[in-house]
Fold these 3 entries.
Entry 1:
Amino acid sequence: MTERKPVCMVEAINLALHRAMADDPDVVVLGEDVGPNGGVFRATVGLHERFGFRRVMDTPLAETLITGIAVGMAAQGLKPVAEIQFMGFIYAGMEHLVSHASRLRSRTRGRLSCPMVMRTPHGGGIHAPEHHGESTEALLAHVPGLRVVVPSSPRRAYGLLLAAIADPDPVIFLEPSRLYRSVQQVVEDDGQALPLDTCFTLREGKDLTLVSWGAALKETLEAASRLAEEGIDCEVIDVATLKPLDGDTILASVGKTGRCIIVHEAARSYGPGAEIAALVQEQLFYSLHAPVQRVTGFDCVIPYARQEMAYLPDVDSICEAGRQTMRGNDQ
Amino acid sequence: MTERKPVCMVEAINLALHRAMADDPDVVVLGEDVGPNGGVFRATVGLHERFGFRRVMDTPLAETLITGIAVGMAAQGLKPVAEIQFMGFIYAGMEHLVSHASRLRSRTRGRLSCPMVMRTPHGGGIHAPEHHGESTEALLAHVPGLRVVVPSSPRRAYGLLLAAIADPDPVIFLEPSRLYRSVQQVVEDDGQALPLDTCFTLREGKDLTLVSWGAALKETLEAASRLAEEGIDCEVIDVATLKPLDGDTILASVGKTGRCIIVHEAARSYGPGAEIAALVQEQLFYSLHAPVQRVTGFDCVIPYARQEMAYLPDVDSICEAGRQTMRGNDQ
Amino acid sequence: MPLSVPISYTRYLDDHGQPSGELPGWVDDPQLLLDFHRQMTLVRAFDQKCVALQRTGQIGTYASTLGQEAIGTALGRAMTEADVLIPYYRDTATQLQRGVAMQDILAYWGGDERGSAWTAPGALEDFPICVPIATQACHACGVASAFRIRQQPRVAVTTCGDGATSKGDFLESLNLAGVWQLPVVFVVNNNQWAISVPRSLQSAAPTLAHKALAAGIPGEQVDGNDVLAVYDRISIAIERARAGKGPTLVECVTYRLGDHTTSDDASRYRDADELSEAWKHEPIGRLQRFLHGQGLWDEEKEQQLQRDLGERINAAVEAFRSLPEADPGAAFDHLFAELPERYRQQRDELLIRAAALGGSAHD
Amino acid sequence: MPLSVPISYTRYLDDHGQPSGELPGWVDDPQLLLDFHRQMTLVRAFDQKCVALQRTGQIGTYASTLGQEAIGTALGRAMTEADVLIPYYRDTATQLQRGVAMQDILAYWGGDERGSAWTAPGALEDFPICVPIATQACHACGVASAFRIRQQPRVAVTTCGDGATSKGDFLESLNLAGVWQLPVVFVVNNNQWAISVPRSLQSAAPTLAHKALAAGIPGEQVDGNDVLAVYDRISIAIERARAGKGPTLVECVTYRLGDHTTSDDASRYRDADELSEAWKHEPIGRLQRFLHGQGLWDEEKEQQLQRDLGERINAAVEAFRSLPEADPGAAFDHLFAELPERYRQQRDELLIRAAALGGSAHD
Ligand SMILES: Cc1ncc(C[n+]2csc(CCOP(=O)(O)OP(=O)(O)O)c2C)c(N)n1
Ligand SMILES: Cc1ncc(C[n+]2csc(CCOP(=O)(O)OP(=O)(O)O)c2C)c(N)n1
Ligand SMILES: [Mg+2]
Ligand SMILES: [Mg+2]
């Protein structure tokens, strides 16, 4: 079945889940409200009806448990795709992610493994209640043994989710909730996975590399367009897989442009942008024309709905950082 | 009472706890085995006998609970000092740290607050069982609203723990277990707190700034001595408070030396060193003589006891990075 | 097979407002009954207003308390000012009874932190609404521990839903409360659903009160739609706790007549018949019928009450609407007791972004 | 007051090895009884050896199973090869019974990951030793879910201590097992202490088996020092689970005769009298006395057995000692199914550090 009408990201995710479950009887889905309700964001719609309660499991309300049973299922060779309802509720599962999911293979020297996927909505900007706007991907990206993936379009969501499910190791799949319904694309439901561990270059340019992922790419791309009008030619990289990080693509781009700005929603300090900045200056110190800059969320609690937009990186801030970076040595 | 004989770090911590409990009836201690047993590392010895079970509480075995009740106690104006037996067991408490402890003041716009301290042994190198060698301070340092402190000597442990307890906001106090008994110092039990949010310069130098904290300072200082013999004059900074980071002290030093290496036990990627490297190059790009380097643990699971030492930054690696950094432009 | 253990179930008024046995002595106080009725009526009207405000984009997602007004009303009333409430997010009734102003509740759901910075004297130490499920149970044990440590005759009361009773935080807290004999009361609003997950898929425990047995503490059920039963049993539990006799779990059996929140559409997963059946047991009509029977209530009083409450609610909505825009810098100003200097620059940046958004900070 | 609910308690042999009632039919099989005896004796001797190896710096911290040999021996025996064990760290007896080699167990406690890479056919899918308390209970539910999803007649068996029953993971797992009717058996080694925290400070539950009631599943106690009782009740629980009749919690009441681990000194917090009293109930002597009474055992056989086991243990220690040093690169080689190219450099760096440590990688 090839789907030809444009779909939004949450529909693309739903397509990928249907496809993966149809293709592989070992794929199972679990979480809160993923069954008859089809997920609070509707990502699991139709799975329960199609694949039955044995493979589409509404769990009791317990994130520690959800994460822990996914580990147990995965050790048995199933490919559990667990949903955490919002990233802000992932923390109760941290012990299982850090001490088990990421290590089961290593601890048993390969005797057991943990091919699980944990999906969760990521990031702010949808005016949801408190704790529903988290982007704490750095906490997961720091953990050895986990893959952390953030798609930024319906097509990449489809292809990367298939790749995450096919991957023989644990993958955290962070779905930017701000993008769930805001963009539409034609997605070929052809079962084709996209490569993990690989950045995507969304726009080519020679003056300045903008690095981002997830929903913040929207503002990043907009900033690139605006800067282009000012004669600043930006390359835009979608990191897509934060861990392991595809340094090669980023370094090749910055090697060319000599300038780099990282844009993310997460808090700045000890945030994901720090790693990219550290890496770029380590590797390209002698060819950089200006310091690597970060345009990020702040080191405060993300404000409630009424003021959350002021927390998120905006086009102005990115443009301003871009201009500053271009001025570079003249400072 | 002034204590004049040299004490090791765990004894200094014990002195600070005795002092804080004696001075302030609101200070209470809780955790697993902190009562009659005096803590598995003996940090709470004598507290139970002296202050009674009402203020020194052995909890049931449940880290979520320990963290959560500390929040509740703190909201009532107590100053709970909770012990997590090893950093590897802190994760079950993450939800309370991220979603509550760090935010209670912000969420209530100051109506309530959370003056709690969470103490836990930190880092590897004592050949303990698996999960007992964690150094995941980056996970905590990324969380807005938390302070993260790591002492590196008996005296700093004493003074910083008193400061942490006196602080009106939540502080994570990470105690390098490798240093618990390995170094002795005379500690004046005078109730004097050391400043939080401040780096300590342990050694002055003009060529190269080495930045570290906790147990890795041992190898860092040793490397500084060895490099001195080779004519490389290192300044050594003990970060002490990772969050909020005292950028000023670090930047002043690197502004002088033009070179910086960060040394930590934690895994490299998205680790704490990334933030410092990112910050230094952001602020000092035009005066740096060489890229900021990181000598760290690796992006793999920390090996069990038999091979854990190969995971930790060693003097050789620091020296080698130092030499490389000095060669700088000549590369 | 698991042992079947009897758990007590208390109900004083049946669906028709008829006493289903002997009533407790305090029922002779007509004022209390009228207060309950007034308060539950206020809650329902205010709740409807909240849903309406959400539908018109004036507040964000809201969790309606429809059908569950008796629980919070009774428990808020059973508490004294010295006690501390550690609520969850379906506690409009409880917060109102504790004295939290309607405009504060609106501000909270309107996405404004100031909604938890209330100044109501009876609720100054109460916790803000808790969204991460069941975590509040641990905080309640911490608050109760503080009371125990300081030997204060105060009680921590915490609430949660049926779904929350599956989460470790709740279960670890029950266990601690039992072993430390804490002055804490756990009130479970068993409204039969956790979003789309029915009670039967949440736990095989015969009743949620059975969870108390695992912690060695008393557990009981009440008819959560009978404000008299809820008030009676929770009052007893609170006074037990205050007297140093330990914690209690009170499961209030009720029904979520609304959607989970305004973001939910329960018709996707819930049977229409189940819902219309549940309406027959709702709490306000039941008490009203009882009051009618007692000659304490009539249509005219009802009309007058509705008018009064309507005015109060409209005034609160007005106050909420005229709340001046918050200073975006507050996100930093309340991060720590004192903002370290090095956060200044970020605070300035935040103000710049906020200013760039201008009037459109809302969307 | 909490309801006092009776929980069944099974014991077949008293401290003197006398039947305390009618024995189950399978006791007529002398070979099984002799196997139990042999195995428990092996466990105790091996356990002593482990402690000795730790004292001489040849392995790291070790958690002795002294006094608790009956539990793992019985449960390991009650499981079939198709079943999966999800153990904790005080499961030497269980692992041995499952076929894990002694040298693997030594390697694990010796700080070598290869100790969990065993090739024992009966234990290939068993989980490694679990250190983070109670987390294994969730994994067991996951394994059991896999069995249910694939409709395999297999059972997941998980163990934990009394302290572990306070942790959310355990309680959430019980709840899930109940509501999903999973083929899982929870075996609690209630050895009365969680390091220094006594059972009485861990929970006010009258028995730990009461925790099952909260999950709507059967819970029972057995005398954990009576290998017959443990075997009988766990076998029944496993076969119930296999037959699709759901989970069981079996609390084995025993006593930790040793320190918590070799890093602990229990004399700091534990009464000497309590300890010597507990020695009177230990499991091996009890079974031996029963066997003596049945004419199945005598001093000579005992001598022979001790010699045999001593040899086996020494051979295992030898095999452990002659295990070639592990490749430090293994930390990366087993991080993922396939190591992404970009980890190569770090792997190389690790090898350099390891080489610099040279022979001293151990300290
Ligand atoms: C830790 C956590 N997980 C998930 C959620 C999302 N969520 C919000 S309400 C809810 C259902 C709660 O049901 P219940 O406890 O019965 O309370 P009710 O809403 O029915 O009053 C869920 C899953 C959350 N807020 N917190
Ligand atoms: C999550 C976690 N917290 C703390 C510890 C440290 N710790 C190891 S064993 C133990 C006590 C366990 O007692 P119990 O469950 O009764 O098992 P036992 O050791 O007595 O067999 C503790 C607190 C741990 N391993 N994991
Ligand atoms: Mg509910
Ligand atoms: Mg124990």
Note: The interface with chain B takes residues 84, 86, 113-114, 116-118, 124-125, 127-128, 132, 135, 137-149, 156, 168-169, 172-173, 175-176, 179-180, 330-331, 334-337, 340, 342-343 of chain C (CB under 8 Å).
Entry 2:
Amino acid sequence: MPISEWFGKNKNDNNGEGRAEKLVIPDGVWLKCDSCGEVVFHREFERRFKVCPKCGFHAPLGALERIAHLIDLGTFNEIATGIVSCDPLDFRANKSYTEVVEAARAKTGLAEAVVCGSGEIDGRPVAFLVMDFSFIGGSMGSVVGEKVTELFEWAADMRRPVVSVCASGGARMQEGMYSLIQMAKTSAAVGRHASTGCSYISLLCHPTTGGVLASFASLADIIVAEPKALIGFTGPRVIEQTMKQKLPKGFQTAEFMLEHGQVDMIVPRADQKETIGRLIDYTTRDVG
Amino acid sequence: MPISEWFGKNKNDNNGEGRAEKLVIPDGVWLKCDSCGEVVFHREFERRFKVCPKCGFHAPLGALERIAHLIDLGTFNEIATGIVSCDPLDFRANKSYTEVVEAARAKTGLAEAVVCGSGEIDGRPVAFLVMDFSFIGGSMGSVVGEKVTELFEWAADMRRPVVSVCASGGARMQEGMYSLIQMAKTSAAVGRHASTGCSYISLLCHPTTGGVLASFASLADIIVAEPKALIGFTGPRVIEQTMKQKLPKGFQTAEFMLEHGQVDMIVPRADQKETIGRLIDYTTRDVG
Amino acid sequence: MRKFILDFERPVAELEEKLEELKQLSSAGQPDIAAEIGYLEAQIEKLRVHIYSNLTPWQRVQIARHPDRPRTLDYIEAIFTDFIELKGDRLFADDPAMIGGFARLDHVKAMVVGTQKGRNTKENVMRNFGMPHPEGYRKALRLMTLADKNALPIISFIDTLGAYPGIGAEERGQAAAIATNLMTMAKLSVPIIAVNIGEGGSGGALALGVADTVLMLENSYYSVISPEGCASILWRDNAKAPTAAEELGLTADKLLEHGLVDTVIKEPLGGAHRAPALVARDLKKALVAAVRRHLTKTPGELVEGRYARMRAVGSFESAEEAAEASE
Amino acid sequence: MRKFILDFERPVAELEEKLEELKQLSSAGQPDIAAEIGYLEAQIEKLRVHIYSNLTPWQRVQIARHPDRPRTLDYIEAIFTDFIELKGDRLFADDPAMIGGFARLDHVKAMVVGTQKGRNTKENVMRNFGMPHPEGYRKALRLMTLADKNALPIISFIDTLGAYPGIGAEERGQAAAIATNLMTMAKLSVPIIAVNIGEGGSGGALALGVADTVLMLENSYYSVISPEGCASILWRDNAKAPTAAEELGLTADKLLEHGLVDTVIKEPLGGAHRAPALVARDLKKALVAAVRRHLTKTPGELVEGRYARMRAVGSFESAEEAAEASE
Ligand SMILES: [Zn+2]
Ligand SMILES: [Zn+2]
């Protein structure tokens, strides 16, 4: 079932408070928080879009959950669809790349690590893209790069602001240089969109690193981060190996990046939709 | 005698090697270097434009000496002349501001702390400005600000590159806010000149600080510094008082600024004319 | 009750203490004291009016630095709605001495930037006493450029002793950061309104001050150098700061007289901290008026007007006239 | 004499030692040895041709990293005239791992930028082994923007294991610096020619690689991740780097085959360090040709062409076709 239908299905349902529950597979009434270990009421956890009611821990959200969280019910229309990755290098490790992609598709139900579309945020039309870390670590290969590029080009044509939600380990190494060049391709597309005077708001989630952070995710007019998200170019383990020393506490967290001037603000999930909506208001010219 | 005449006088003199000697007041055959204390042959010192032949110390040069050093003989034509400072605040310390300016004029033979004009550097036409630290510490008041602004405006109209040579303690406090606003005025003029696609090369000499460094002197496409020149926003004594600690060795020297990415290169006086000429070549479009 | 009394306010403070004593005696039942209280109250009022109506420039500098004086964030809160703070220069750090973000002024979408002092010692340490590093100026520039992209007017609040004089600030190019702001602000095609709410110290203040309209609160000052710095250079004596303040012509009324600022917002007797809401109300009126006036202009008109405004500043005369005059 | 012998070069090195011995015996008067010398020389040549004509990707990576391999500054010296180095990002520091400046290519004024490795340990420490910090990318961007202002073509030299993975680099926004270069290079209206002379490691290399023509030396590599990094992630074993190098398709010939680079410059048998002048001569020819070709284009053509070039990169198929094909 295409994503647009999936969301279309909800169109006439009750919205507001109850909409999160649509995503719950009720396999248990209680669950244990990954961060504080406290047992929390499943419905409560899902109603808060997977933020622990005890400690505020922001558990990962999938692409469809992000859409449900940020985009007005029934307004999402997927675009930049209909392409699937090839295996240009005939890449083989323990599994072939083709097998890796197929497994990711089966696991997530997504076609790729990004979902792009048009939609509304509190009634404001936007171009929207969301990455899903559970799809091969949210890595950017040719398909992700192409879809992101198409979205920015579409938004430039339509004079729409772009909102991106990233969670990615970086470039997809199984596509080699094809992947690397997606960084340049998406960055160039952001540049063209910016030239039209439209704005771009980037939400960085846990984790956003490597080739995605070093391309379109960092090029927004306004960068918002989720609390405690890991944000950095090189992953902490690699840095630790290179430096041969322990990294400082809180290194590469959203809070660290805020202090170092790399993001504008940290916004908890509960406030993200409202804040992004207000930011869009400020960066959209009033039609006079 | 206007400066243009002063230089015009030399037009038919022998040029090259001998020209520096025009500036020498031969009060002695030998002199002692201010830096190494060695006794050096006066003619040799002057021939090198006041660089000590023993230790390479760059002694201060006045505005007219700078013109003689950098501008082809007989090509300099002073512009932005004919204005003199008022005393808008009726400023009085131990001496009145009017007395201070008159004393500076008498001492230096200059009308103000900057000389502006057109000229050629190895045959390349430029707009040129040079500050003289011996005129009230090379400070920028209304007249300096106006002359610098006029020069950049003239260069923008004529599509000429600008070469500036600065040595200044900053804004001229005796003119209060009139002085401060010259920073904004000159910076805006640099911006207009840059918009025409013309280039601007700034040579920073000992010392360049405060309001001059924090305005037009820092806004060049290429920034060249004289060896060991003091370059900084706040003077070292004020910083020492604020920090209540000794400053690191070499702090705020040209070499320090190079390391910290604030200047492009350090060029000894002997090579300045040739280097600036080559830089102008690179930043001037060939007429096809 | 005031927490902090300036030297020249002491005579009033002493009479007020006396008044307090009398009132206590009165409430303790002592008769025939009402007349005395009334007299003293009148005396105090007279003295206050006398002192505050004849403030010297140095006294105004002290009021501008008063620890209870409202700060940038206080005015943002009182004057604007829907403030969203934006942080960081995207290069090195977020500088807490400089703040900024989106806000609405009387329903008009705008960008505000400004230096921010602390309200107490702890806050002041965090805010570096309102003295920005290069990253602060670069943050402000980033936000102003964002405003330009989105056609939002800019309101900048100036309240700083100056750019921070420190090693790191020099290493990271304090001068270049200020110069770049001056040049870029001149080119922005949106209205820029600057308001000096306290201290306007040198290039570090001007780096937010290239504007289409410049407002000053009555007891703010704007100066090429701090009075202490000037005194130390010219008289080699910091104690001469009051004289330097006099000579520098740094008060709002003086600058208005010279045509270097556009409007002076009156403060209540004793300074803005005596009635912050009142000052905020008047400042808001002035800001709204200024923004309205400039919003009707085209980008070209704004840029040309701002350039012409700065271009015209200078106190000089033709050399010939000067020579004739001195004959 | 080579200072440094790679593992797979050892058989040749051993024969060469033997040859040396024979030659010494010969010159010491031993007769009838000439034939043996001649035979050995032929054998060595055969072996060399065999080894170097059948290099594995991993062997090429090792040649790309050879300590004697010519660096950016060597090529600038050999290919260009009148080089004037420009330094600094105007923000934080000058990064010696990144160099740049004006230079003339066959009389054409140009801007060169490039990562710079050291020629020895001391230089390598100074150059941070050719791994730039954010200030390096920002310096390169400043120089490329200056080239754009002055209509000078840009030649960028790529030779880096990657952007430096350190704390300071993260603090100062390594990712943002790289991203900004990618976006800005796409907009520059002058020709950009990139040449990979050795290592092309990930985003840190691509940050100089957004170009109108991309050249590669025969034994350089260009990869989304280092073979070691790939091996450690996929096989949890660094020793699998040779396999990773194979899978990643990172060699010049492979990338040419995929249409991801434009031209491969042949190297002498054994690598560029065996005959640097020869490589420089051929590289110069290729650079001159590329610059000439692009200099005839209008700024608009350049920008559109560069965008289209990147836009076209991607390996994917329509979902429908894929579904049909798998039926
Ligand atoms: Zn929890
Ligand atoms: Zn000496």
Note: Confidence is low (pLDDT under 50) at residues 6-25 of chain B.
Entry 3:
Amino acid sequence: MALPQPDRFNLSDAAFTCELRRGDRVAEIVLGGEVDIAARPPLDNVLHEALGTDSPDALVVDLTAVTFADSSTLHWLTEVKREADAAGARLTVTTAPGAVRDLLGITGMKPHLSD
Amino acid sequence: MALPQPDRFNLSDAAFTCELRRGDRVAEIVLGGEVDIAARPPLDNVLHEALGTDSPDALVVDLTAVTFADSSTLHWLTEVKREADAAGARLTVTTAPGAVRDLLGITGMKPHLSD
Amino acid sequence: MDDTPPSHWSAPATPYEVGRLRRAATAAAAERGLDGRALDHLKLAVSEALTNAVLHAYPENGPPGPVRLEVAGEDGAVRVTVSDRGSGMAVRSGSRGLGLGLGILASVADFCEICTVRGEGMRVSVGFGCQTGC
Amino acid sequence: MDDTPPSHWSAPATPYEVGRLRRAATAAAAERGLDGRALDHLKLAVSEALTNAVLHAYPENGPPGPVRLEVAGEDGAVRVTVSDRGSGMAVRSGSRGLGLGLGILASVADFCEICTVRGEGMRVSVGFGCQTGC
Ligand SMILES: Nc1ncnc2c1ncn2[C@@H]1O[C@H](COP(=O)(O)OP(=O)(O)O)[C@@H](O)[C@H]1O
Ligand SMILES: Nc1ncnc2c1ncn2[C@@H]1O[C@H](COP(=O)(O)OP(=O)(O)O)[C@@H](O)[C@H]1O
């Protein structure tokens, strides 16, 4: 799968990064840094962009570079899951050991998120 | 509509009463006294009996004689609504001024319950 | 709120104790001068706190642990405290509720204090008829 | 927990202040000797409490009210308090959330104290690295 030039969103807070990568029938949202309530508007935008135009078969949300996340991210992930289901796109959420995986463990949400 | 002999459930706690009345294509659950978590098993039973055998066109839940209710009743009413919708029965919840109507007011739930 | 000593009760945290304890708290609050809508609200708040102890404090398949109820105050200013020795508040992914109980309780009380210690239990105090903060 | 005076900050309850205040609290807690997993958990709990003040304390369409953050303690035993002057906890039928925030916060803290006064605001205290109750 060819990954074209990424669309890049950078918040004024340098800590949070959000990238959308598009491949053949696959969209990948790559987040980095600290994700909290202030990130909600760009997160909603990137989700609509990822699923919006012509809907991919697979959506990947890559959280491996996220250094901090709280329930704001969980609320957004719930929305991601709902919209991916509605668009018929397979969802994969990838995490690394650390803050995000701990949070998913605390809340028992990991099993609900990926197909 | 003819109301035949009511099925009557009485809890050991005299305060709570629960009656199922069946008319022509209508089932009516009439509650009285104090309704709390201890009432949940008979409430679940009466709901299944009301909708179970051959499903009525209309379900009436009469709470006018209820003197006390808390979130246990709201949780049950949410279930009643869900099961009535699934069975295709119109739901009407009737209340009198007092504890139940206050509770529905506090929680803003009244509009969600009846059709 | 100092002269009349507090009333208190302990019982197993089971559904059937909720009504008995709720009625005991309501009667004690009435004796302490609370009445009208505030008394109705106290009754509702106590029922929510007791129901939470029954539903959430202890493992579903074990024997029920204890719940303690205390009513304090006088001259129409009353504080009720419900405490358990359960798990303390935690995230429950398969939660059976709507998240209504604590919201109702906090909505009707003048003030509300919730203390939870991980693995040691939860204590909820609600105040009625008093304008003191917490 | 008595010698080092508490650190505190005040800010408008807006999304963009959450990160700044969270990082300030985390740095202050580290200076007070908290580290490792407990420090990560404090950071998470503070973020949840601040987010609640942003989302729930003040009317959606008005100007943001204030949120206050305090970090106290020393020798690895730290208490963080987040308070607002908003509506206090109440039932919200069209709630935007999952009811996760307070559950997460109570799950990771050693103890948690929530005080809410109707119409006056809410205060959430969380303790880390201390075995004191509340
Ligand atoms: N006494 C308690 N012990 C442990 N957890 C509790 C207790 N009371 C409440 N909780 C937790 O807080 C959550 C919210 O409680 P509540 O607002 O009463 O909602 P519900 O309507 O789901 O019971 C519950 O789902 C539960 O996880
Ligand atoms: N600072 C606050 N001021 C007013 N209400 C609050 C505050 N914090 C929490 N609440 C109320 O408590 C409810 C539960 O909060 P929380 O567990 O954080 O869930 P959510 O994930 O919905 O934000 C909220 O829906 C809100 O009604």
Note: Residues 1-14 of chain B have pLDDT under 50 and may be disordered.
